[in-house]
Amino acid sequence: MKATGHREFLAGLIRLHVLHHAVDGEFYGNWMIEELREHGYRIGPGTLYPMLHALERKGYLRSRSEDTGRRARRHYRATRKGRGALAVAKTKVRELLAELDGKR
Q1: Which tens digit of pLDDT belongs to each residue from 43-95?
Q2: C-alpha to C-alpha distance for 84 and 71, rounded to whole angstroms
Q3: Among 68, 100, 93, 98, which Cα is nearest to 17's?
Q4: How far is CA 36 from each of CA 17, 28, 41, 59, 69, rounded to the nearest angstrom?
Q5: Of the candidate ranges 1-10, 20-29, 53-62, 80-89, the one whose mean pLDDT is the lowest
Q6: Does domain 7-100 have CATH number 3.30.465.10?
Q7: pTM score, two decimals?
Q8: So where are the chain's domains?
Q9: Where are the beta strands (DSSP E) in the chain?
């Protein structure tokens, strides 16, 4: 089943996916676009970068700029607040999956 057409529900999953990778280590936007694409999400820079900036403004991510020659590349990583949010979300996702699978 394609993931298109359900943006409202998938946006939260995309944020969790982003946060998961930000907890694992630094990433930059184009890498994240490709990573999400491998999981069936079609998201472009015009959607991802505002999402990353919002997560940073809210304190879940921090970023640093690295000059790569042609242009600066921004790297993102989770903050303590972001790591905490992911831990809470994992618990809630596990509960939901158990319920969806009829194990509750």
Answers
A1: 999 999 999 999 999 999 999 998 877 788 899 999 999 999 999 999 999 99
A2: 32
A3: 93
A4: 8, 12, 5, 22, 26
A5: 1-10
A6: no
A7: 0.85
A8: 7-100
A9: 27-28, 61-67, 72-78
